[in-house]
Amino acid sequence: MMFFEGSEKKVEAVMQPGQPSLRSLGRPFWAQLVAKANAEILSSVHNEACDAYLLSESSLFVWEDRFLMLTCGTTTLVHAVTEFLKHFSEDKLAMLTYQRKNEYQAQLQKSSFSDDLASLAPHLKGKAWRLGHLDGHHNYLFHLDRPYQPQADDATGELLMYHITGADAEYLRSEGQTLAGIQQRMGWSQLLPQFQFDEFLFQPFGYSMNGICGDRYVTMHITPQEDSSYVSFESNLEAEALIPVLNHLLRVLKPQSYDLISFNLPCPLAHAEGVQLIDHAEQTLDIGYRMAFQHFLLPNTQVRSADPL
Amino acid sequence: MMFFEGSEKKVEAVMQPGQPSLRSLGRPFWAQLVAKANAEILSSVHNEACDAYLLSESSLFVWEDRFLMLTCGTTTLVHAVTEFLKHFSEDKLAMLTYQRKNEYQAQLQKSSFSDDLASLAPHLKGKAWRLGHLDGHHNYLFHLDRPYQPQADDATGELLMYHITGADAEYLRSEGQTLAGIQQRMGWSQLLPQFQFDEFLFQPFGYSMNGICGDRYVTMHITPQEDSSYVSFESNLEAEALIPVLNHLLRVLKPQSYDLISFNLPCPLAHAEGVQLIDHAEQTLDIGYRMAFQHFLLPNTQVRSADPL
């Protein structure tokens, strides 16, 4: 059985004023950082505000004063973070968060969140949290313990979708799918008409996308395998632009279970009939963000067979 | 934070007719087997049909022609199984099942279910299944691939309870709790008046119990820690005796999430208001058992804070 766990890990860092532009560090610097996470740069797009690198099932966005790297699978993102901290120590940072979702094949990961905290501890003084019950979906966050005031429009939404169903999910699992076919189903040109996209279609299936427009980004990673399907979408779009995108993805992909994680973003979605909120945790962080975690689920009303191993 | 995961693993084996009595192997044989799983015998009770050993957060029941061993925490039950198979090879067995629940700290376990299958493969030809979604609660089962016909009264029910709440849960977490206090709350003398019990109270808390009556057994293990509370109860009682016990435990312990796993046992329970069945898988096994897995959950309607790590 083909198995790929979309076990996302994410780092976001903002530099202190007066630091050199992170973009000026150039692609070789970032390629070397990405390599520390066991990933590689596949392609990139650039605009006046941002360099967006599409990695192997992962993404990296670099702005003048901040960067965001998001990796999946058994990547070792924490090694990229500690490498970055060799060049820019804690006192150069205004803000840093390191985030990890729950994993269901934790034994296949090269480290646990707790191990990652131990790797970060010599470099950064921080606080760590878990949002959501340990035996259900949950999300871990570590942040640098330093007061920070995000800008008014600094908000993030992350939608993690499991068990996608329906005709479009079947299309994503099918051979012969095309980028045009995926784009059309996801509605990028209608929903995000101003965005510049960078996409990659894996063989036999799997899709990664970065999109940028000014200092706004979207990123999506699809691992459609029937037994372990997982799609993540994340963006710093303002709520009025983001919510229609998230609602469209829920309508198209029909996930039977999904997590909505947000930072400073009220994000009321249009849930399908029968979908229930089964866990909800919120935390005001000392770094100026209100983090929310919600796990939604469509109860499985049919008796299923066992999965043969 | 004190953390103990009740990551249960279970083996049950039935011998071919004509094999020597397993009880006649004596306590040293079983003590050595238990040691292979990194557990130890704390105490025991015996009746005309069964020897019941209470282990460190684990249990072992030995009948003339079958045995059942159930271990928790980071025990290595599969090593006890392979040790047993050195003495009694596949052709001496009429039936063998090896079962493991999902783990939420899989990286702390010494092996995964997949690793365990690899350990068993040289000794046994079998089939393996997962009941329940990978990203939710689920249960793994391996069984010897040999036709078997269980007796008409051979049925098992397992109730795995998470996030116990209410006054009785608080009692189980409190200092100064007593065996008499637990017995009274669990209602053993009313519900199982004919049973002979063997119990152990851990410090500062935690409770293990075996009970036997003829060839029937009950076993319960409580790890009440607030952040990761978990209680398991299992028995081969017939449905009309078992269901009142399970309903009483649900009423007393008020778990917010629980799994009911059964073999050849229709087991309709009295669920509290608001409790939902969120996943349900059933499988007819070639060894004569119908296995059912149901995950029940009381959706968390209040916004909780994050858990600090």
UniProtKB/TrEMBL annotation, chains A, B:
Source superkingdom: Bacteria
InterPro entries: AdoMetDC-like, S-AdoMet_deCO2ase_core, S-AdoMet_deCO2ase_CS
One family name in Pfam for this protein: SAM_decarbox
Record PROSITE patterns: ADOMETDC
Classification via SUPFAM superfamilies: S-adenosylmethionine decarboxylase (SSF56276)
GO MF term set: adenosylmethionine decarboxylase activity
Entry's Gene Ontology BP terms: spermidine biosynthetic process
Protein name: S-adenosylmethionine decarboxylase
Native source organism of the sequence: Ferrimonas marina
